[in-house]
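In keeping with the milestone schedule agreed at the kick-off meeting, the structural modelling team has produced records for the first pair of proteins. Each record is given below as a sequence line and a structure-token line. The laboratory manager (R.T.) confirmed that both were archived under the project's standard naming scheme.
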Amino acid sequence: MTAVARMAMLNLRTVAPYRYQGFLVFALGVLLFAGKPTVLVPALVFFFTSQFASYPFNVADKAGLDTLYAVLPLPRRSMLYGHYAWAIALFVATASVSTVLAVLLARAQTVPFSGRTVMTVLALSWALFAVNVAIQLPLLIRFGYTRVSVLGTALPLAVVLGTVYKLHLTVPSTQVWLPVLWIAGAVALMASAAIATTADRRRMRSSGPAPKIH
């Protein structure tokens, strides 16, 4: 297992005690959007992952895990990328389960839900997720969850929801932009990871001697 994967697994174990709260939030989201299968996937991905992608930082601040992270035999850069790997894994799991549920609900309600529609809602979900995480993680890495708990989650939500509103995005209008959405999401995450690396260096310098990033 690579160092990045180990850090992602550590994040999973960090939030594992709160899995029942996560299931409850997910279930409430399904109930809220059950009547709109085409909205279910992007809504769940956006709201669910926006909370749980940042949750390891919340737990780390409460439990003082920065001390543990400092002595782990993992390159600092791999630890940072592990946070992004955790977020992406969360996206894949959430998108997979919510897509299956959306298809089943669409069939039960006789709502058109073709393969093209599935690809569209997944692409839109990916773009919403990527922009959200791209804004959120560098702030959390630089300042920690305690200092940006409201800003770190509310700002990405406001930016993404405002963009969707201004662009009047719908499933039909989004279909012609599928490749752009996938590429833009990947670019946003790569740029965010580069910013997070710089933010982490500054955090280390402000708190003491910075370890070398391999």
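The second protein of the pair:
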Amino acid sequence: MALTLLQAHTVVADPHGDRAWATDMFVPRVGDVVSKARTVDKPADEPRTSTVLADDTSLTIPVAANARYAMDAFLIVDGDEAAGMSLTFTAPSGSSGSWAPMAPQTAGGTDQQLRPTAYGQAANVGVTADGVIIPPRGALVTSNTAGDFTLQWAQTVTSQSPLTLRAGSWLLLTRTA
């Protein structure tokens, strides 16, 4: 059986000493490495009527110890305007950094919520029955503990109408160091 050119190249010694460089440049890196972006997608709508923050069923990404990340998310949400949405992100013990929801504070509000918010601290944002986009952004620095980075969310005020995080919402972490 004849070898392809790629197979033939990989079975011979590295005569120029540059194969490691080329592998890093042209072969997609795997795992949690610097400059690698990882995304999780919400596959199905998830309704909630509770005011108690709880982990999202699919928007969780594992993070390494002693690492730094940039965080972006795209949350498609609808619900009762009077109820609103509370959300936060949780990170492993000892982590630092901050995030901002980048969304109106109340229904019909025009001010963007841009103040730094600590991980684990909730921010309240407005929602509408027609739906809103909430695009949180942040930076995360982990300590010597690895673990999960997770979106938590709930209604801000109790309502019989569910708050729904829609399919197609996503969470993205890019390791920066």
